[in-house]
Every structure is written in C-alpha cells, then in structure tokens.
Amino acid sequence: MSLFMLILLIVAAIVLFGLGFVVKWLFYIAAALFLIWIISLLLVLIRKR
Fold first, then answer.
1. Whole-number Å distance between alpha carbons of 20 and 38
2. Which of 9, 11, 13, 48 is a plausible cystine mate for 34, CB 3.0–4.6 Å?
C-alpha cells in the first residue's frame, strides 16, 4: 500500500469515528478501518527495514 492510501484510510477512519456517535454501526466500521490502518502501517515500516 502506498503512503497516500494509508493517509486516506486514516482520514476515513477519523470521519467515521466522528459519525459513529450518531450511528453505532459506523463506529464498528471505523474501528475496523483503524485496525487495518495500524496493521498496514506496521507492514510498511517492516518492509522498509
């Protein structure tokens, strides 16, 4: 994944997290996106070594 895609993913997670207080399902989607972002960021950092 490129850095641009990681940035888009975290922005989407933040937006969905904000909306999650209105709709509970969006909160779960945002949590899943955040976990995907963390995992992909760690994979990118590991590959750079």
1. 19
2. 13
